[in-house]
Amino acid sequence: MKNGLFLAFALLCAPTTAQVPPTDPISAHIDPTVRPQDDFFQYANGTWLKANAIPASEQENGIFKTIQDTVDAQVYRICLQAVEKRHPFGSAKQKIGDFYYTAMDSATSNREGIAPLRDDLARLKDIDSPDKLLVATAYVQLVSGSPFFSFYVGQDEKDSELNTLHIGQGGLTLPDRRYYMEDDAQNLSARQAFHTYAATLFRAMGETESDATAAATDVLTVEHALAKTSRPREDTRDPFTNYFMMSVDSLRLLTPQFYWPAFFREVGLEKVGRVVVEQPDFLQGLNDMLAQLPTATLRNYLRFHYLDGLAAYAGDSLYEASFNFYSRALRGVEQPRPRWKRAVSITNSILGDLVGQIYVDEYLPKGTKEKFVEIGNAVRQEFAIRIKNLSWMSADTKHKALDKLNAVNMKLAYPDKWKDLSRLHITRTSYLKNMMAYRKWSSQRNLDKLGQPVDRDEWHMQPQTYNAYYSPSNNEICIPGCNIIVPGFDGMPDDAVLYAIIGGTFGHEITHGFDDQGCLFDKKGNLENWWTTADKEQFDKRTQQIVRQFDEFYITDSLHINGSLTQGENIADLGGVVVALEAYKKTSEYRSGQPIHGLTPLQRFFHGYALAWMEQLRPEALQNQVKSNEHAPAKWRVNGPLANINDFYEAYSLRPADHMYRAPKDRIVIW
Ligand SMILES: [Zn+2]
Questions:
Q1: Which residues make up the environment of ion ligand 1, defined by Cβ < 5 Å?
Q2: How far does residue 497's CA lie from ligand 1's centre (Å)?
Q3: Domain boundaries, the chain
Q4: Confidence band of 231 (pLDDT split at 50, 70, 90)
């Protein structure tokens, strides 16, 4: 994920002349109290981080929030223009305007509260048999949350042209199984906050204080059992050991307590022949739990999940309860964002493809796509050279790697074809009802894909999403348009910064096609190991080094980065920065050797890379990330890879006594 370059649209179109050179943002961020050789992240970003504390309504501050603020301001204008007058029903502006209107209409939302959910809640409270539990589970999966397990239609890992039904572990409310399985103070307090939140929801459903408390305990009992039978997150990374194609009959034998044919019927799937079960051991554990726990306990778990998925849209008091748990307790955020910001953010996430079309027309700097194509091609070429020169890969595998690299599809800036939202009906009547309409539409849209060929042109992010991805099943990378934004620059930054940030993103995403997971998917995206055993052994030797390197980074006295869980992302970061640097070395700016704002081109490049990760998190959010996210926290995404790169040692003359120093034999080279 990451980055970009901010180009005020007007400036790009009509460059101004004879201006006083603005302060260089890169130099302005430097913290002279820290030595670059000891902590480059802090040295490069420290002054900005100290001057920009985390606002009370946020879990973080840094480049992500800065760019998000820019995009939010643009989306805000899109919402305001849409809401100010009535548009033809079904048009993009009608949907955006009406959704935004209901999200802002706190009076109606507070008056309504959970009234639109009453019938559903009454039905859920009446569950008194496993059959009714199953029917209700199907319903909740469609309209609200993902109780008991995860369930979706997605690309078949072994036949990437096909969409198949996937069932996997899930059903947890806390961010990871570790929150349930480990009993340190942070996890105990997170579980306490969860209990308090669940009890609040049960009181809102009309339960007495003591019944609400008991029902909340039921929810935790069920989730503890689910957590216990869930695989640790790092064990869900291997696609071979998380893929078991089976018939519905075999699935029934695995979980006799849960009658899947009835479940499929309830969600509207008539002809399910085969299913990809991601973690059969989890389903066995689920089956045992369903056999052991009373229906009343399971019912309470389901009631909670139904309301939990919709609570944040059901009036201020439930929003507050949801905020207190998800944002305050789990991320350390002190106060909610203003209502307009929340409304903008939810409108953007629900109607992203409609907002995106206007965003591209009105706000995306012209020439973004062309710039992405240019940098993307430079990085691809450089990566090809790196592959050819690798000492550890066999000639035959190199041949296949180059073939796969050549086949990588690049989805850049914005899609050529937008999602069809014509069947999603949004009105100005009720925020909660709009949310439910969206959930149903979205579930239906997903289930409709079953049995259909994969649409290779579909985008899984929007142009206004500040992030990027590589999809192994499509062998494609997607870099949304707003990655062009680089905060602090009034015009196009120098190539050092551009290549470090945008080139680094390309490099990061492209190496995913060739890492411990990428080596298991061929150029068409089918799950098939295309490496020889010897190649894999060589690669594993190197990745074990990176696992060890990151295992040694401690966040607190007792919590260190999970080197196994984050290895794929750490390998991509290291590969990404190396490839981007090699591409940068071909530019005339680098070859001229001229200093840029007092920095050598090499130093400037590393500053650009540090800017890509300029971010600080609240302690709770940091804990949350380390336990539940495959990306290491920002600081280590900078200092980790740079400590392996010889050019960095040259740029800053590192010596053995320096904190970031690694002996030459310990510096990890993968790509
Ligand atoms: Zn990645």
A1: 569, 572
A2: 20
A3: 21-74+349-419+458-666, 118-336
A4: very high
